[in-house]
């Protein structure tokens, strides 16, 4: 007589395979879906922000109906997502082109002088301007290399990003003979926040991995390890030098 429980292991195996396939599908679909959703949402937000500033006669619906000669109930509604983004980009390029000229610079200086006389607006404007200049105007400046530093104490190593050589008062008032390096130490899993630290040059161990690979290592909390063989060789070489 057949035992009704004989097929249980096979049934469990099928359920396990289905579960694994489902989780694999989630891993594949989630990044793509979230990326598309985020881009679609941002485009819609920009459209909703831009179109109220555009005269209604220049909206896509009015332009198409006026071109086709449609009136009243015959009119069609045109809602093309992303046109607002195009308008915003063109407007920004024109403003930037004007601002680079003599007249534009004079207008900006005059406007900023008015803003400087307004207490509350002055603080808000200066903060936003400084943030915008840091993010956009100085985008050509980037971290030079990834590195290892002993932080927060000796014997504990952390990944950092070398920014520049320390200069001026920072260098003059630090008790070191070999120069100082400014290092940004990011936090996990958000590498945009962290600590700016100054280390003697001899305490900074430069890594062969790229900035992108080091950022992946920080964001993944050590789960995504790039260039394993090269990293292994680097660690072995470091240990040989230490011994």
Verbal overview:
The chain has 243 residues and is α+β, with helices and mostly antiparallel strands. It is built from eight helices and five strands; from the N terminus they run αααααββαβββαα. It has helices spanning 8-50, 60-68, 83-99, 102-116, 119-137, 168-172, 211-219, 228-242, and strands at 145-150, 157-165, 180-186, 194-200, 205-206. The protein has a five-stranded antiparallel sheet with strand order 4-3-2-1-5, covered by helices on one side. A hairpin with a 6-residue loop joins strand 1 (145-150) and strand 2 (157-165). The longest helix is centred in the N-terminal third of the chain and has 43 residues, at 8-50. Residues 4-10 have low confidence and may be disordered.
